[in-house]
């Protein structure tokens, strides 16, 4: 069974830093794109950052220059380094990945359970 395990969420002060990680595990044949989304109360879920198989990345305009996404293909893991956190950053952050599992010949999308990020003095 394929699953995404998230860690790194928590409470930080404005201007502080936090590092999120997402590891895909289970009967995996290959992982394609991986990324992070977030959803704040009363708002739509939005893409924060994504990394593709060629290591190209996409970032939301609101986090460019502050967040950095990296990928460790050997561990099927992505890391989101969040610096200079702002009051608008608090949300539930969810990992997303396109994965081909054992016994299949196409990719399916998986979601992590979500981890809370809170920014407060």
Short description:
This protein is an all-beta fold and 121 residues long. 0% of the residues lie in helices and 57% in strands.
Describe this structure as you would to a colleague:
By secondary structure, this protein is mostly beta strands. The protein contains no helices and eleven strands. The protein has strands at residues 3-7, 10-12, 18-25, 28-39, 46-51, 57-59, 67-72, 77-82, 91-101, 108-111, 115-119. Strands 2, 4, 5, 6, 9, 10 and 11 form a seven-stranded mixed beta sheet that branches. Strand 4 and strand 5 (46-51) form a beta hairpin. It is elongated. The model has no long low-confidence stretch (mean pLDDT 96).
**What is the number of strand segments?**
11
The H/E string reads EEEEEEEEEEE
* Rg measurement, Å: 14 Å
User: What gap, in angstroms, lies between the N and C termini?
Assistant: 40 Å
Helicity range of the residues? under 10%
Please report which band the strand proportion falls in: under 5%, 5-15%, 15-25%, 25-35%, 35-45% or over 45%: over 45%
Report mean pLDDT, rounded to a whole number: 96
Shape: elongated
Unreliable runs, pLDDT <50, ≥5 residues?
none
Protein structure class: mainly beta
Tell me about the biggest sheet? Answer: 7 strands, mixed
* Count of alpha and pi helical runs: 0
């Amino acid at each position: 069974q394929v699953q995404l395990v998230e860690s790194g969420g928590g409470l930080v002060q404005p201007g502080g830093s936090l590092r999120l990680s997402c590891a895909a595990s289970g009967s995996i044949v290959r992982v394609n794109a991986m990324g992070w989304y977030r959803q704040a109360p009363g708002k739509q879920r939005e893409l924060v950052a994504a990394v593709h198989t060629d290591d190209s990345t996409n970032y939301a305009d609101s986090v460019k220059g502050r967040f950095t996404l990296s990928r460790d293909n050997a561990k099927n893991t992505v890391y989101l380094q969040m610096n200079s956190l702002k009051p608008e950053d608090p949300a539930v952050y969810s990992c997303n990945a396109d994965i081909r599992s054992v016994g299949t010949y196409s990719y399916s999308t998986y979601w992590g359970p979500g981890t809370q990020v809170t920014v407060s003095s």
